[in-house]
Amino acid sequence: MNTLLLKNNDEDVLKAGKILADGGLVAIPTETVYGLAANALDGNAVKRIFEAKGRPADNPLIVHIADFKDIERFELVSEIPEKAKLLARKFWSGPLTIIMPKGRGVPDEVSAGLSTVAVRFPSHKTAQAVIKAAGVPLAAPSANISGSPSPTKAEHVTADLSGRIDAIIDGGECKVGLESTVLTLAEEKPRLLRPGGITAEEIESVIGEIEIDDAVLYQLKSGEKAASPGMKYKHYSPKAEVILVVGTDREYIDFVNSNSDITVAALCYDGDEKELKVKCLTLGAKDDFKKQAHELFDKLREIDRLPEIKKVYARCPKPDGVGMAVYNRLIRAAGFEVIELEKL
Ligand code: TXA
Ligand code: MG
Question: What is the spatial order of strands in the sheet that 279-282 belongs to?
């Protein structure tokens, strides 16, 4: 299949809308990462997303809307919880996904057979325009081959999916760089399933205390069921082995330097490169979690372009605020492999 490269202009957005309305697949920019979109109301179109990405069939998709009223108009949920209305007022449009009881309008292919559905209203103007042009809500996972880091630039999408999807809209770099925060309101207590740019603390300031799902920070034990199926899969990993190293600045630098050779790289903070003897990929300043979130996936992909690198020692932020989202992705990229020089 020839994949069309579309521009971020009115004419091409209309083209994308038409492809989607006809059951096709288009990768679109959002403020978090690029999404691989299909008509969320069309089970057959949605199936093609799973094929193109090589995504396990039991991993449900997020439905993207461009107007709060779309939820009722397309019968996406059976009931809108009060807390969802409060959160929508504060954080939509924006990088927060809310899981609610599924409505009649959503085919089983989207929810992977679950009785719930994830809904998100992206703030990216192009994403909104494409949803409007398609005239339907769009199911969209991140536009990467399953298992690889989510794409934050159009060229990441091209590298993974060119020839497998109908079109890609190039909207430049994604602002946040990590996927949306996922919160479930479909159970008794609100629970964070995936941390992102909107932090647990910000959510709590609107709806009170929330729970943090164990899978956010810890590895599921074998046989344990994932509340968010995506959390159980190996994710975000480059081909080289990534290992998190927890320690002070000095401990980290001494550790890497005493384990250095040409096959080793460091995923580190700005300034570390002055003292490290290995190839360095920097994520931003130590306390700048937003910048680290923005850089992480791009740097993980860069590691794959360095064939000599077999092992990456990564610095590890404290799991607070946006740091929790960076930690959550990094620990998965590392397959939960951590060297503790100091207690977190
Ligand atoms: O920022 C984002 O959320 C991006 C952009 C494209 O919007 N999308 C994204 O989709 O990251 P995806 O499919 O890569 O991640 C969605 C996550 C998965 O971990 C999935 O298991 C979970 O949300 N999820 C979706 N529907 C769910 C449901 N009904 N119950 C529990 N988890 C759900
Ligand atoms: Mg994904």
Answer: 279-282, 264-268, 311-315, 241-246, 338-340
